[in-house]
Amino acid sequence: xxxxxxxxxxxxxxxxxAKYLFEVEDSGEHLVQRFKDxxxxxxxxxxxxxxxxxxxxxxxxxxxxDALNDAGVDTHFHGRLNETDMLIERLEIVPLEVVVRxxxxxxxSDRTGLDEGTPMESPIVETFYKKDELDDPILCDCHVExxxxxxxxxxxxxxxxxxxxNDVIEPMFADAGMRLIDFKLEFGFNAxxxxxxxxxxxxxxxxxxxxxDDRHLDKDVFRRDLxxxxxTYEEVADRLGVQVxxxxx
Length: 249
Description:
The chain has 249 residues and is α+β, with helices and mostly antiparallel strands.
């Protein structure tokens, strides 16, 4: 399939906080996902742009989704097209943010009173309602069922798949001297009705700490004004062996 990637940012089918989606001509099954240089936090309340961020996150997502596909985890990723664009399978996205937590941090610390960095015996999976106007509230399983977001068995499958993702990518960070504290995933159903991992995996969607000094190596650098975002992401890419070459305009 020959893919036209000459889209302008005004041609999008959908615009999210950090990505565009574009239709693929003569195909109802695929889309082009383009990563933006935008950075947001607190559900869009904090915003900035960083040249090269889109290229970095496209490279990260390619790196992780290649590993997941090789491990037998179904993803929407069908190949990288250029520095910022990838070909993906069209999904009907489940309106849940699925968060896998290996260590207490962020909102889990706020909700439980446990100190950030408190270890956990085993990872847990939480689900949050994808509703910006509600600030993406946490949902327990009965709320998911009440809202009819997915069937009970589909929710169990979704959580099991999230833990499979953790089994694949957590050792990748550990081998590079980093701790994968937690991360956010999104899932959807493809045309055949199969549950598939979508969206992205990058320092935008992961909380990553240095294994020795707990230095933050993720979007918290932007969220909490802890340092230079691009330099941080480039360090993570270098340590993971992610192949990315920033191209300046």
